[in-house]
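Risk register update: the risk of archive-format incompatibility is retired. Evidence:
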Amino acid sequence: MNDVAPIVFVVDDDPSVRRAIERLVESVGLQVELFASPQEFLQAWRRDVPGCLVLDIRLPGKSGLDFQRELAEANIPIPIIFITAHGDIPMTVRAMKSGAVEFLTKPFRDQDLLDAIQLALERDSARRKQDSEMATLRELYKSLTPREREILPLVVSGLLNKQIAANLGTSEATVKVHRSQLMRKMGANSLADLVRMAEKLGIRAAKPNVP
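Archived output:
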């Protein structure tokens, strides 16, 4: 995934606007794909391709804001840069509250659009990295045995092995083995590492039954 070049997708029903943005984007060495409608974009978009979307607010049959909502509902988290010749404050507020990277009013400066595209691509890259890390973390968690998963919340609560053993009604030696395997499988070098991993997975520290 990291080797795939990002693409700047442009959706605007005005061919002259599309071509102008294409020339601008290509001038800084980025790939660009042009579409006259949201439907055309959806037919070409692939989840494994990094990028951002430059989207006109006013489109035939569907507004860019409506399409932004549809993308969110379809779990398509592509960063969006809105462009419009008919913007107003309520539109801007709605777009930004819904996660748009930028809202540019035509005519806008070329550099403003390029800056917004750069920010959008950085945001997409960061999200993809985070998603990849979470996928790896979930796979590591799946590798744990049921007993190791049971011990994990107790370990991240800061309990000693003998305290965990008392909670589970087992021996301290057994807990020590499970704890060691748990740390190894999760790739945690310290308790702090394991705590951070548990937080990302949504695993809360357990409340001990025995002091």
